[in-house]
Amino acid sequence: MSDEEDDIILSELNDEELVQQMFDDLYDGLKEEIEEAVNILLERKWEPYRILTEALVGGMTIVGADFRDGILFVPEVLLAANAMKGGMFILKPLLAETGAPRMGKMVIGTVKGDIHDIGKNLVSMMMEGAGFEVVDLGINNAVDAYIDAIKAEEADILGMSALLTTTMPYMKVVIDTMVEMGIRDDYVVLVGGAPLNEEFGKAIGADSYCRDAAVAVETAKEYMARKHNQLAAG
Ligand code: B12
């Protein structure tokens, strides 16, 4: 970073410049700057969802590309993730504030062997914002953790996240176990994570693969509407 950058006063930047600066600050893992910028955008009446998608996810996309290309390494990406979480923490209560009626209950977690949780957290936040109750199991979940939770919580939906090609097959282990236990059809199973696709979702027997958090919310709503209609008809 050059000395000049130390002098930047975030509140003096226009929206476009500020978002660009947030991309840089996220890249550099500057949590306090990200938090300050999120607050500035909120003061400027940006919708929380817009800040999340345009500024934070936008910035993380750049980090992801450079990580893939070997320009950034794990320690830097961890700092970037930490800065992103700082921003998400501010937005979380605001996204949940929409006062939507209770839609259903989701248990969500990242699969065994996988510690990526930003995408999962984003899905949780968006689902809560849409009126779903969310039980977040965190990272590195073995099959028992999922099964125990969906039963104990009487969940409608099970959500699994995986960001590694080596951990995504574990989703099938969980679904196969549900089938063996005769409880597969009691739940809607949604899966997501960057390396997945629709075909994979089908192949492992999930109900749907969701590309992003917005699709997850729409898909979950559709399944819940179907479930309510079935209950009403039955
Ligand atoms: C941040 C990051 C990390 C951070 C994680 C910090 C954290 N707290 O999460 C750290 C530095 C710890 C890390 C570690 C590693 N990482 Co990493 N990481 C990333 C990175 C750059 C961004 C991921 C991210 O947060 N994206 C932003 C979020 C918002 O997007 P998302 O996760 O895709 O989630 C969205 C959707 O997928 C969907 N979604 C996600 N989950 C779910 C769940 C449900 C139910 C639904 C419906 C939807 C859904 O909705 C989300 C929101 O819209 C990616 C690059 C990439 N392109 O994804 C690599 C990446 C995933 N990592 C990678 C690797 C290799 C690793 C390491 C093995 C590196 C190493 N050598 O140690 C370790 C693995 C550790 C482990 N055991 O898990 C590779 C995976 C390659 C592969 N094909 O398997 C990637 C793709 C980078 C690369 N191209 O090389 N990583």
What does this entry look like structurally?
The chain has 234 residues and is α/β, with parallel strands linked by helices. It has two domains: 93 residues, Methyltransferase, Methionine Synthase (B12-binding Domains), Chain A, domain 1 (Orthogonal Bundle); 133 residues, 3-Layer(aba) Sandwich (Rossmann fold). Helix content is 57%, strand content 10%. The chain is built from ten helices and five strands. The chain has a five-stranded parallel β-sheet, sandwiched between helices. Strand 3, helix 8 and strand 4 form a beta-alpha-beta unit. Helix 3 runs parallel beside helix 5 and helix 6 crosses helix 10. The chain is globular, with a radius of gyration of 19 Å. Cobalamin binds next to helix 4, helix 5, helix 6, strand 3 and strand 4. The site of cobalamin (B12) has 37 residues, from helix 4, helix 5, helix 6, strand 3 and strand 4.
